[in-house]
Design a protein that fits this description.
The chain contains one helix and 20 strands. Strands 1-3-5-7-9-11-13-17-19 form a nine-stranded parallel beta sheet, with no helix packed on it. A hairpin with a 2-residue loop joins β15 and β16.
């Protein structure tokens, strides 16, 4: 009934059952935050509505099923947070249509497969944060990630193999200290050796690479030393020599 609603935040409550279908009918919705509740079932985003949405946060619930392909119609989406749920399957290729994305957080789910090469493509070149930790991803780290010239936070703690790419030294915001210009103030949680650090207003100052708990082999590349703004580097629990 609230057809003109643009901002809806119900985060940090004890709401449960499924997400009401009426939420998907709010065609003018730009910000939706349902973080830290007890919603369960599949996240059934309706692709024909909410195309003006810029901020979508359903993290820290009990949602399951695949990531909806219909999210690909959200051409204005800047922040996508689906972390700490029970999503499974592969990352939908439809997300590459969200060309304004600055933050993707899919951590702490049950996703699997290879990290898609499109994440480092031109369509999502504005990414500042990519957090995929604690899933079941495999394969190598795509070379295309080095094309993300705005990347400041990279967390790929999974079951990834291969070597550390020398091109990680090309991540320009970590080198030059450039800032993310996302319109929304986003809370970011970084996991450091068992501790969780929460960043709010200072998120844009964070420069972090976490490749821990993988099966990476070979040497620690000297090129990483070029990243002068780097505040956190976690390469623990690998097979580096």
């Amino acid at each position: 009934m609230m057809s003109n609603l643009e901002f809806l935040s119900l985060s940090e409550n004890h709401l449960n059952e499924i997400i009401p279908p009426s939420v998907y009918n709010m065609k003018q919705l730009r910000v939706l935050s349902l973080r830290s509740n007890q919603f369960h079932g599949e996240f059934r985003h309706a692709g024909s509505v909410g195309c003006s949405m810029m901020f979508l946060d359903v993290s820290q619930n009990n949602l399951s099923g695949n990531i909806p392909t219909s999210l690909g119609v959200l051409s204005s989406l800047e922040v996508l947070k689906l972390n700490n749920n029970n999503f499974n399957g592969k990352i939908s290729n439809s997300l590459q249509n969200c060309s304004r994305l600055t933050s993707i957080n899919l951590g702490d789910n049950k996703l699997f497969g290879k990290i898609p090469q499109w994440i480092g493509g031109l369509n999502v070149s504005k990414l500042f944060m990519l957090r995929l930790r604690s899933n079941h991803f495999s394969g190598h780290i795509p070379q295309q990630l080095c094309n993300l010239r705005q990347l400041g936070i990279l967390d790929l703690s999974n079951n990834i193999s291969g070597t550390i790419s020398e091109c990680l030294g090309n991540l320009s915001p970590m080198v030059n200290g450039s800032k993310n210009t996302s319109f929304f103030l986003e809370q970011t949680v970084l996991t450091l050796k068992g501790m969780e650090l929460v960043y709010n207003m200072t998120r844009d100052l964070v420069r972090s690479i976490d490749l821990s708990s993988n099966n990476l082999q070979g040497e620690i590349r000297e090129e990483i030393s070029i990243i002068i703004q780097l505040g956190t580097l976690n390469l623990s629990s690998n097979q580096l020599t």
